[in-house]
Design brief:
The protein has 105 residues and is mainly alpha-helical. Helices cover 82% and strands 0% of the residues.
């Protein structure tokens, strides 16, 4: 259950990272509200997951999920480059997340 909570926290991290783009410097109300709510939920769920997961593992997975998801959404929503090198680098982050998961007892 702790890994599922951590994954959901990572998804909310993607939400607030992408939401920041839509706030236009926190000048738009509803994107700002969504972004702040996503930030709160993301960090709150990370804290819950850290009750049972090691801090280094939980934080690395949270950041990794957020980084991968945000990069992919950036490519899809904002036409950011999707070069082979960039995609390979994201796959390495994913490999690190999987490695952290399988190394847990």
């Amino acid at each position: 259950m702790d890994w599922l909570i951590l994954l959901i926290a990572g998804l909310f991290e993607i939400g607030w990272a992408i939401g920041l783009k839509y706030t236009e410097g926190f000048s738009r109300l509803w994107p700002t509200v969504w972004t702040m709510l996503s930030m709160t939920l993301s960090v709150g769920l990370l804290g819950v997951a850290m009750k049972t997961l090691p801090v280094g593992t939980a934080y690395a997975v949270w950041v990794g999920v957020g980084a991968i998801g945000t990069a992919i959404f950036g490519m899809v929503l904002f036409s950011e480059p999707a070069s082979v090198t960039r995609l390979l680098s994201l796959s390495l982050i994913l490999a690190g997340i999987v490695g952290l998961k399988i190394s847990m007892p």
